[in-house]
Amino acid sequence: MSKKYVYLFSEGNANMRELLGGKGANLAEMTNIGLPVPQGFTITTEACTQYYEDGQKINDGIQAEIMEYITKLEGITGKKFGDLENPLLVSVRSGARASMPGMMDTILNLGLNEDVVDVLAKKSGNPRWAWDCYRRFIQMYSDVVMEVGKKYFEQLIDQMKEARGVTQDVELTADDLKELAGQFKAEYKSKIGADFPTDPKEQLMGAIKAVFRSWDNPRANVYRRDNDIPYSWGTAVNVQSMAFGNMGDDCGTGVAFTRNPATGEKKLFGEFLTNAQGEDVVAGIRTPMPISEMSEKFPEAFAQFEKVCKILEDHYHDMQDMEFTVENGKLYMLQTRNGKRTPAAALKIACDLVDEGMIDEKQAVAMIDPRTLDTLLHPQFDGEVLKKTPVIGSALAASPGAACGKVVFSAEDAKAWAERGEKVVLVRLETSPEDIEGMKAAQGILTVRGGMTSHAAVVARGMGKCCVSGCGAIKMDEENKQFELSGKTFHEGDWLSIDGSTGKIYDGAIPTVDASIGGEFGRVMGWADQYRRLKVRTNADTPHDAAQARKFGAEGIGLCRTEHMFFDADRIPAIRRMICSDTVEQREAALAVLEPMQQSDFEGIYEAMEGLPVTIRFLDPPLHEFVPTEEADIELLAKDMGKSVAEIKAIIAGLHEFNPMMGHRGCRLAVTYPEIAAMQTRAVIKAALNVQAKHPEWTMVPEIMIPLVGEVKELAYVKKVVVETADAIIKEAGSNMKYLVGTMIEIPRAALTADEIAKQADFFSFGTNDLTQMTFGFSRDDAGKFLDAYYDKKIYENDPFAKLDQTGVGKLVDMACKMGRATNPELHLGVCGEHGGDPSSVEFFHRTGLDYVSCSPFRVPIARLAAAQAAIKDEK
Ligand code: ADP
Ligand code: MG
Ligand code: MG
């Protein structure tokens, strides 16, 4: 039997989302449970895929099937397409598997032409309604199918209203609307060069095609990327007989939620507009009435609607978002779906539903979108002030939270101003590692260049600091400490507010309020922790971040980078001396200065983690990141080292690398300068011994992680240095403390030879940032330059640095786990790349059998929830 591409609403059900889309499946479900739904049929998502496969054509077979269903619908409704007695009018609506509100297009009142309008006008005795339908249809069809552009029609409406001396659409008479329809058609002809189509079948195929085509429109593509919806899914099309909310004052159209989507309060929430159709409610043409008022004006329809709400919630066990129309006092349901909600509302609703006995705890955990949680952990703008403050620009929402402060242009200024007690927003062309201190001191960071994985974005997310990146509209003049945006020049000290959750930039100061995490948050996380198998650690370099992450439920540190500690003003001279040393003795002398500092850093982190595991990674970045670039600093270093400026410059020049990402870094540093590894080992072990002595109740097992290993012998070499140093200290201390030595798996060769490397390693930690770079062969800092083109051409759908590429990089991870465990069954496995906080990646790591994921502090709750969801899904 050939494939079925069309289903009557009465043939489908809620479980058929993949085929019928969310809207279609729910229209079918509502039909099945006996709710008043104008009947119709759904053309499947497979027909959409087929349309694209056929080169954007609806093939003859599918066209014939659609026409067969029009005939069936005519039978059901007793109306006929294009009929002059009792004409059938339909809406043509998109509907993907996952809801994409407003992203794709809808056409109403399809089936009208001049003759049919006349019939409707006469038969109904309501010519105003008939002509209102017709002008709306021409408008929507022209816009959606022929892409004429809404604005031309809106101008014509405005002119008509002005000519008639009225302000509202509803005040236009039947004759006015008839005249408008004529003007619309003339406009259509002048833009398209052909007459407006009169044949309902032609109209229908045009509309269906337009919906298929809208799957690929730019805003839908962006929405899908933001929401993890694959392009391959396609959209279904719903063809539904019309219910009319525009027939007069006992008609109207509304949207409503069964509970408040902003707060979660259990109270009907929504709006209703009399004598209106379709999007009039949300379009702001007239002010709609709150849904509560509907009970007075439409008591019967409202009573019926309340009943429907109860039935739907009981049926779906979730808060519903509904669209409906009242035609001559009678209610018609046009849509229902699980309503979108704020993160706070999501938590409240989940808890309430559990308390009401509608769902169990597992379902509560499964229904919350982990990605939204971190906004709850950051400060937010005061909603009232926010409404009144003009938006002057928008860019990438790189790191969530709200920030308000005075503009400064350099990291030093940010630090200096903050030390004086000023709140600042750091505005830079882009940031670099030297800016870290300033970024920490600022309330938020705004950059002109850089994408979601730029330095500023990654570092800010790590710190849990608000960041808006890549605002190309800013005309930056760093030298004169000013920039221009939206026609206004901002100087140092001017107030600016930025929202890292939306990417919006505001002129002036908007006070922030600390996010209040009600008891529901903790309750849901507590449930999540019962179900997950993956442990969740954090990436933290400072005691402050470590403590923060503990509050969010981190169960250890999966990645403590040691290099950030070297950038502090009191340490950088020593590391520079180390780099510019000629002899091992000189180098050791410089390292001896750093050692106690590192040791006390580690002690601080161990204290903050209260005996939980901490993985410390040895020095990783190429040394040139530490050397001075400013003339004055170079002179200082020269003096410090007793060398000439020329000599220092020669050393710096010698450190230049053509491709630093693949240069002299990671364990290659320890192989060339084993004394660095020895120093870091002493600092780690001594810190652990001290903390152990102070806290006998903890069991300290330091974990030392060697980065960028690609060959077992290089790991063996560095490990030997570590073990000899560590054992000597432990022995001398008369202790029997255990410690682990492991490696990051971040070079494809390490994954490919994981069986050998596992012989030398107590643990693997997948550094999926570098592993992704090296596997794809492009650097994440440069990927921004071409990824957009790749998205446009559907070569990649997601940023592989944000969401793990499961087919390629994931295969390496999976393979390395299996091979590693085969040679070393005790091997402990984790991941410490950015992916550790991405829900779909976490699900993959769960399936792959890792022991833990590690992510930045503010993503810890996301990972906890995602890990629980993965485990729950797995059970099924
Ligand atoms: P979106 O997915 O953007 O919400 P819809 O397909 O839901 O688009 O259509 C938008 C609006 O059009 C609906 O909310 C409803 O008011 C109106 N509409 C759609 N189909 C019909 C219909 N058969 N009868 C009356 N109104 C309809
Ligand atoms: Mg809708
Ligand atoms: Mg790395």
UniProtKB/TrEMBL annotation:
EC number: 2.7.9.1
An example Gene Ontology molecular-function term: ATP binding
Keywords assigned by UniProt, alphabetized: ATP-binding, Kinase, Magnesium, Metal-binding, Nucleotide-binding, Pyruvate, Transferase
Enzyme class: transferase
Binding locations of substrate: R561, R617, E746, G767, T768, N769, D770
Positions of the catalytic residues: H455, C832
Domain named PEP-utilising enzyme mobile: residues: 422-503
UniProt binding sites for Mg(2+): E746, D770
Domain of life: Bacteria
Annotated ranges, domain PEP-utilising enzyme C-terminal: 522-870
Gene3D superfamilies in the cross-refs: 1.20.80.30, ATP-grasp fold, A domain, ATP-grasp fold, B domain, Phosphoenolpyruvate-binding domains, Phosphohistidine domain, Pyruvate Phosphate Dikinase, domain 2
Catalytic activity: pyruvate + phosphate + ATP = phosphoenolpyruvate + AMP + diphosphate + H(+)
Pyruvate phosphate dikinase AMP/ATP-binding domain ranges (all copies): 62-288, 303-352
Known cofactor(s): Mg(2+)
PANTHER family: PHOSPHOENOLPYRUVATE DIKINASE-RELATED, PYRUVATE, PHOSPHATE DIKINASE 1, CHLOROPLASTIC
Similarity comment: Belongs to the PEP-utilizing enzyme family.
Protein's name according to its UniProt entry: Pyruvate, phosphate dikinase
Organism (species): Dysosmobacter welbionis
Lineage per the UniProt record: Bacteria, Bacillati, Bacillota, Clostridia, Eubacteriales
Gene that encodes it: ppdK
